[in-house]
Recover the amino acids of this structure.
């Protein structure tokens, strides 16, 4: 049968719960799809027509009862729970009323406490507001104090302190600004202060950039001047050393003696001076001292630069300022390179190089003390630019110069620039290379100047012995060139064996050596003596020798002048030795090294030409005297007792010549001259016999010539004491030039002339005679008894044995020829 169950049904008005009795049947599946199937079934039962249906469907109902058992049990539990809730509602109502009573009691008790709490909270809020106001006031006070301090620093031009105050305000107070207005004010004022500081310091830096150019030029002049003073002190010390060495050299009495001073090259720095002991601080201190003494000079002050760099670093613009500084200094250096075409470079070169020197001295100081303002590669780049430009300027200017002195002045200043900047570790080799490159041009110009001066000195000389009235003249013209023949000071007035051109030529040559040394020294090359020696040999060989040769070839010199020139050559030979020693000493070479080996006399050509000129003039003078030979009677009846007239005239002239020449001419030159003159006399005597004008001559004429020869031989014997210690050897040496004429006269006066053909006798007594000349002369010889056509009158007479021997000699000589 069915079970009684409470069923909840959802309707449109809520949930309706009712108790119903389920039949024991199970709905069909088609009825399971419709929620109200069981109502229809119940109504069918009531209508009396469902029993049979139930019986038929009983298995289905049983199956349905089994399936719905569990949901029905659950529904029963739910209904019981609803009943429990209905009982709980009554409990809730009682609890609610209890709570309402408790709430009323609580409200009455907590009212005063809530009022007190409200008062406390209000007071606390006021206190917080007051604390915030006090904090804001303190912040404003600190802010205004910082701003006031910044204003004071700005007014006092203390930009760094002002920036620090502004930075502190920005860092500490700007984030905690109590009011937006104050914040906006700070955001506006802080950049304005920084911009003001940047503008102010930029203006100061611009002014410094203008002033540093003047200060750098002054600094460069001071530094180069100090280098020049140091070089001058070194030169003075070396001069004292040379003087001491020369004194020791002459006291030794020999040019090959070992010097007492050091035998090595002089060093460039031999002592440390207080003015040169430091580094660039000395140059800067000297420049500062000079600036303090000159009120118009701004002086060198790097403070504005360091201040500007520090301010930009504070502003965070350090890298930008570095670039700005480098670019401006680079532009400034480029402007310093401009060479004015209106001013000669000779006048502006010192300012030009002093400006560059001061520029890089300043840069070196900034590099070492600027705290990273400029780096070494930047300075090196600037220096490479400067060196390239200076090399270009020097190349251009040197190529235009045609005066050696101008080139030397610029070279000296450039070398001083190199010395100055080398102390600051700048590479100056390219500058020195330019100087070395133009070394040949400088010496060519110098040789040209010396050639002009030598020509003027030779043209102005009267070629008379130089008179010196005072000792200082002797010292200036003789001792200074070491051309004296004795260490004993002569009595004054002193007549020198040379003319006025000799000291002039020595001065010109010495000046050439000193100028050459000055150009070659301080140029980076240590051993300069071989180069200086080469140019000195050019001066002596090309200029002096060539000028004297032109003077000789001009033909304007007389005998006395030619003799004086020959005497000058002997003095110049000693002067040349002095010049080479002087060049060696200036080059720092010991004398014992410089004097090694035999040096050929550089003026040998002009010396030989001078002797030849003197000989030529003397021969011409002798020829004038020999014109008197026209009066010789070649077929005289008796020999002249005192010889021919010409021989006496020649003897007087030669004696006068020797008395003058022995005072000024060297012995070897005088010997050569006398030998040449006597040889010329011998040749002229031989020429008389060979002359076509002499058709015949007799023994009386030969005896007259014999007397003439004895006169000349007597003259040679009288001068023998001038040449050697032995009078016999000196006489024989001077009589040698007369030997040919003497042997001819001896042959003609011999009783047996045929002995000439005897080899032994010829070698001993007639070795200077030539066969052809003997034939020609002997054919003209006739005895005094012989007359023209005399053979017709004496055809049967006995022939003279001498004449017979002579004829046999002539016949045999003709057959041999």
């Amino acid at each position: 049968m069915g079970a009684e169950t409470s069923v909840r049904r959802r309707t449109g008005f809520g949930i309706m719960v009712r108790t119903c009795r389920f039949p024991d049947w199970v709905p069909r599946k088609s009825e399971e799809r419709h929620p109200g199937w069981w109502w229809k079934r119940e109504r069918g039962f009531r209508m009396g027509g469902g029993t049979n249906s139930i019986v038929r469907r009983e298995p289905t109902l049983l199956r349905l009862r089994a399936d719905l058992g569990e949901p029905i049990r659950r529904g029963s539990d739910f209904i019981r729970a609803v009943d429990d809730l209905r009982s709980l509602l009554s409990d809730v109502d009682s609890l609610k009323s209890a709570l309402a009573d408790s709430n009323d009691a609580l409200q009455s008790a907590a009212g005063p406490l809530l009022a007190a709490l409200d008062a406390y909270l209000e007071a606390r809020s006021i206190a917080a507001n007051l604390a915030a106001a006090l904090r804001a006031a303190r912040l404003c006070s600190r802010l205004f104090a910082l701003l006031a301090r910044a204003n004071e620093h700005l007014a006092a031009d203390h930009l760094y302190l002002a920036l620090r105050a502004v930075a502190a305000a920005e860092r500490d107070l700007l984030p905690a600004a109590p009011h937006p207005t104050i914040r906006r004010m700070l955001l506006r004022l802080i950049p304005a202060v920084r911009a003001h500081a940047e503008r102010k310091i930029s203006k100061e830096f611009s002014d410094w950039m203008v002033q540093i150019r003047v200060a750098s030029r002054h600094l460069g002049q001071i530094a180069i001047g100090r280098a020049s003073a140091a070089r001058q002190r070194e030169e003075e010390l070396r001069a004292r050393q040379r003087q001491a060495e020369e004194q020791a050299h002459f006291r030794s009495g020999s040019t090959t003696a070992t010097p007492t001073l050091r035998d090595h090259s002089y060093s460039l720095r031999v002592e440390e001076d207080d003015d040169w002991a430091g580094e660039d601080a000395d140059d800067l201190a000297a420049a500062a001292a000079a600036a303090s003494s000159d009120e118009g000079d701004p002086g060198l002050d790097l403070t504005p630069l360091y201040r500007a760099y520090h301010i930009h670093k504070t502003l965070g613009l350090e890298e930008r300022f570095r670039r700005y500084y480098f670019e401006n200094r680079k532009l400034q250096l480029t402007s310093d390179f401009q060479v004015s075409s209106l001013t000669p470079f000779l006048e502006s070169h010192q300012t030009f190089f002093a400006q560059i020197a001061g520029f890089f001295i300043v840069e070196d100081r900034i590099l070492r003390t600027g705290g990273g303002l400029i780096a070494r590669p930047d300075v090196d780049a600037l220096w490479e630019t400067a060196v390239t430009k200076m090399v270009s300027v020097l190349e251009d200017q040197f190529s235009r110069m045609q005066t050696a002195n101008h080139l030397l002045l610029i070279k000296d200043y450039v070398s001083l620039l190199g010395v100055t900047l080398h102390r600051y570790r700048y590479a100056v080799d390219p500058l020195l290379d330019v100087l070395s490159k133009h070394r040949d041009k400088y010496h060519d110009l110098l040789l040209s100047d010396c050639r002009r001066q030598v020509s003027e000195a030779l043209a102005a000389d009267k070629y008379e012995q130089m008179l010196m009235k005072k000792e200082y003249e002797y010292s200036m013209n003789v001792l200074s060139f070491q051309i004296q023949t004795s260490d004993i000071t002569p009595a004054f007035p002193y007549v020198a064996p040379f003319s006025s051109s000799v000291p002039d030529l020595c001065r010109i040559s010495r000046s050439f050596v000193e100028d050459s040394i000055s150009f070659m020294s301080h140029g980076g090359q240590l051993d300069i003596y071989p180069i200086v020696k080469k140019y000195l040999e050019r001066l002596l060989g090309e200029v002096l020798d060539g000028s004297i040769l032109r003077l000789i070839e001009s033909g304007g010199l007389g005998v006395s002048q030619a003799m004086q020139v020959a005497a000058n050559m002997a003095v110049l030979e000693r002067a040349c030795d002095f010049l080479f020693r002087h060049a060696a000493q200036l080059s720092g070479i010991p004398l014992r090294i410089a004097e090694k080996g035999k040096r050929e006399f550089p003026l040998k050509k002009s010396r030989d030409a001078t002797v030849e000129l003197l000989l030529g003039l003397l021969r011409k003078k002798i020829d004038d005297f020999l014109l008197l030979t026209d009066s010789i009677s070649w077929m005289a009846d008796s020999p002249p007792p005192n010889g021919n007239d010409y021989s006496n005239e020649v003897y007087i002239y030669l004696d006068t010549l020797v008395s003058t020449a022995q005072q000024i001419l060297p012995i070897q030159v005088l010997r050569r001259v006398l030998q040449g003159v006597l040889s010329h006399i011998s040749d002229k005597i031989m020429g008389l016999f060979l002359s076509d004008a002499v058709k015949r001559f007799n023994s009386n004429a030969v005896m007259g010539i014999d007397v003439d020869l004895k006169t000349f031989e007597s003259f040679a014997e009288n001068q023998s004491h001038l040449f050697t210690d032995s009078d016999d050897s000196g006489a024989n040496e001077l009589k040698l030039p007369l030997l040919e004429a003497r042997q001819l006269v001896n042959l003609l006066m011999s009783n047996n002339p045929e002995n000439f053909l005897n080899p032994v006798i010829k070698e001993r007594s007639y070795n200077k005679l030539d066969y052809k000349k003997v034939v020609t002369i002997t054919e003209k010889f006739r005895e005094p008894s012989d007359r023209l056509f005399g053979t017709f009158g004496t055809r049967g007479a006995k022939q003279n044995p001498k004449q017979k021997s002579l004829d046999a000699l002539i016949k045999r000589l003709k057959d041999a020829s």
